[in-house]
Amino acid sequence: MNILVIGGGGREHTLIWKLRQSPQVEKLYAAPGNPGMKNTTCVPLLTPEAMAEFAVLNHIDLTMVGPEAPLCDGIVDIFRARRLRIVGPDRAAARLEGSKAFGKRFMLDHGIPTAAGETFTDAAAAEAYVRQQGAPIVIKADGLAAGKGVIVAQTLAEALEGVRQCFGGAFGDAGRTVVVEECLTGEEASILALTDGETILPLASSQDHKRVGDGDTGPNTGGMGAYSPAPVVTEQLWDAIRREVLDRFLAGCRREKLDYRGIIYAGIMVTPTGPKVIEFNVRFGDPETQAVLMRMDSDLAEALAATADRRLKEITLEWSPDPAVCVVMAAGGYPGAYAKGKPITGLAEAEQTGATVFHAGTCLDLEGRLVTNGGRVLGVTAKGKTLKAAITAAYRAVDCIHWDGAFCRRDIATKAFSHLT
Ligand code: AMP
Ligand code: GLY
Which residue among 93, 166, 204, 326 is buried most deeply as judged by most CB within 10 Å? Predict the structure, then answer.
């Protein structure tokens, strides 16, 4: 198989790394890719139409889409119209992530446990509802807002300010519709699953670290690290997630005739009354993928091809029992303003420790040196016989890597210990 991966972050580097291990894979392409991808041809990311043309000309057998933006733009529809095999939901189904209002309505209609909430297109009505409900409360701008459109308001003043910001255009078009919902408390977990619309096949559980600072402090980020499995997801919780979230998701897709052949990511809050879905994403999580795929013993290329072909019922997935930990190294200032172009050293030493370094925001400068080129720069990932060993291995590799301003959280995966005896 020749495979094209759309995207160029840590998640896509991990997909390429895993696909390279498949005996079925011949050529690998990535658009735009990144300098960490080995034995891969990186090409510019063009419009969906131009990528479809590229796929025809280069005899691509399967295209895998990493990020949500091309899915929401309808890349799957364009590929399928040309009979090209692609993994991902079509444009209509991608609204599950692209529109918080659509996602919320879908969950409520199909009995998927989630925070109680309402959708507003009118600022005065939203304000009145917020006053009536009181704080804490959560305000969500409707469209894709690069992870910034969610305000978890602890006070009424913050909540009202959030509503004003949304309707005042702080999140662009995304703020014209606003979801106001109950604030849930508990520990979060990420559940990823493959589905072809008929079968749903969960991957191993994982947990992200959204806040920038140790002890879950500071602003939200794209994710500062992840580990798998997440022991907060007990056997009993898995059962509930399968029945109440995954099976109902699949039934909902069928009832609404959504063409969903891709990855579904349920962001779960483990509440005292059971699992509740905070959000659906229509793609692999980043950095969850780094930790999850490091534990996958099965052939990812085969599983993705089966997803696109609606043959997922033929697939079973095997997992290493060894935990994996991914520590994100970020540029000083992230998630606020940060510098780019800082030379990175120590990658070879880091990999000599046995860890794998997935690139996210890197590029080569004019002299061919590897430099920083984003907020989240690297995902340093390691497996261990125990969680403690995996953590130690990941940080041993992290400590080999340097650039001016580099930082990471030092407590990735430690929350797991409260569930392990
Ligand atoms: P999102 O941008 O939808 O991924 O949301 C970002 C983060 O906001 C989530 O990971 C949660 O930590 C938090 N969040 C979203 N919705 C809620 C909610 N209803 N209650 C509590 N926290 C929430
Ligand atoms: N790590 C969170 C996400 O991928 O949305």
Answer: 326
